[in-house]
């Protein structure tokens, strides 16, 4: 919609027409003159802009001419289409787009007008047909390569919607009267077949005698609840609801405090083998704890802390442990020795530095050092020679 304010003006007009609680054309004409709605086209627009404005205006009003709006709103929308079509300044006149899928609803609406003998509304409808004001199309709006595949319906005024009440349609005043007459005739028939003609036999009482009274009271309660739901809320209602919620919260807190006190006051007797670990009773302070509701900031803070703890736990679970660097162990090659015992020749052994030092020390003590330049070895060789 390229012209803002059209929908608001049309809803205001139809709201005033709905307040009259009538479908007469005289009431519509009075509102038309009061709002000076015929001047809506006097905006100093050029021909092209005036054509687009008229098309947008008809598309907005034609929505209220179709279900699911109430009968009165649909009649008012038809009157409004008739007035706008005749007061537009376009030459040739722009027509009202009606999709083929909606034409069956319009024909049914015309039959309802004829059945209810709303002759002024029937005359306006036939005038629109005679002037060929309707332009029958496949879709309610123009589609091109830039438009979306699915048409998103616009949100209408909820006060104009026709909310179907299945309970009221099912149980009407005539239906209740008929049920009461059947119940009365049923009671008389039971009295006729029983021994005591004044009251029916107990064996014949298959349904409750106050069935119709209960049904009527339930319908009245439903109608009262429906009226209260439609009525606007006041500050007193909000205050009463707030006090009731506070009382419920205080009762719940008191109930929890009683449960805790009962739980901690009862100390069970331990078994003989655990008497030395017997729980001692500690008297709690007599002050009653008050549970105040958390504020919005405190709730958000708790949520952030919980989320942070969850993320830390996930990180700890996912993060791998640091890998230990492999320690390169020294490989010691044993030299050939005539005094080596039990086949120690050509043996490769891997020792840690500490074990290797100890092993070499023992070897030096047992076999002596064969390294050149060692003074101890030279003395030993001299003695042997």
From TrEMBL:
InterPro entries: SNAPC1. One of its GO terms (cellular component) is snRNA-activating protein complex. Pfam families: SNAPC1. Residues 229-254 are annotated as: Disordered. GO terms for molecular function: sequence-specific DNA binding. It comes from the Eukaryota. One of its GO terms (biological process) is snRNA transcription by RNA polymerase II. Transmembrane segments: none annotated. This is snRNA-activating protein complex subunit 1. It comes from Engystomops pustulosus (Tungara frog).
């Amino acid at each position: 919609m390229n012209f803002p304010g059209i929908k608001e003006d049309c809803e205001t007009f139809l709201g005033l027409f709905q307040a009259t609680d009538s479908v007469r054309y005289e009431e519509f004409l009075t509102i038309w003159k009061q709002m000076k709605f015929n001047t809506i086209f006097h905006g100093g627009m050029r021909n092209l802009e005036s054509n687009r404005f008229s098309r947008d205006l008809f598309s907005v009003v034609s929505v209220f001419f179709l279900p699911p709006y109430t009968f009165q709103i649909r009649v008012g929308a038809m009157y409004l289409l008739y007035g706008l079509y005749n007061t537009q300044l376009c030459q040739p006149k722009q027509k009202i787009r009606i999709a083929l899928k909606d034409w069956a609803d319009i024909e049914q609406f015309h039959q309802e007008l004829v059945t209810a003998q709303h002759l002024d509304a029937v005359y306006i409808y036939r005038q629109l047909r005679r002037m060929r004001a309707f332009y029958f199309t496949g879709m309610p709006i123009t589609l091109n390569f830039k438009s979306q595949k699915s048409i998103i319906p616009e949100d209408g005024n909820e006060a104009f919607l026709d909310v179907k009440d299945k309970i009221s349609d099912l149980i009407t005043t005539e239906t209740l009267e008929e049920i009461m007459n059947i119940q009365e005739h049923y009671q008389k028939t039971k009295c006729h077949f029983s021994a005591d003609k004044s009251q029916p036999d107990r064996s014949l009482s298959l349904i409750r005698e106050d069935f119709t009274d209960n049904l009527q009271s339930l319908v009245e309660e439903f109608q009262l609840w429906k009226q209260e739901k439609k009525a606007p809320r006041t500050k007193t209602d909000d205050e009463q609801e707030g006090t009731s919620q506070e009382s419920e919260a205080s009762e719940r807190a008191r109930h929890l405090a009683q449960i805790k006190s009962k739980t901690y006051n009862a100390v069970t007797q331990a078994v003989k083998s655990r008497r030395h670990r017997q729980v001692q009773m500690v008297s709690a302070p007599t002050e009653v704890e008050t549970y105040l509701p958390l504020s919005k900031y405190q709730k958000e803070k708790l949520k952030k802390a919980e989320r942070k703890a969850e993320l830390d736990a996930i990180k700890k679970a996912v993060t791998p442990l640091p890998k230990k660097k492999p320690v390169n162990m020294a490989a010691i090659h044993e030299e050939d020795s005539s005094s080596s015992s039990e086949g120690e020749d050509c043996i490769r052994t891997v020792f840690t530095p500490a074990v290797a030092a100890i092993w070499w020390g023992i070897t030096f003590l047992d076999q002596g050092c064969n390294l050149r330049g060692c003074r101890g070895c030279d003395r030993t060789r001299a003695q042997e020679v």
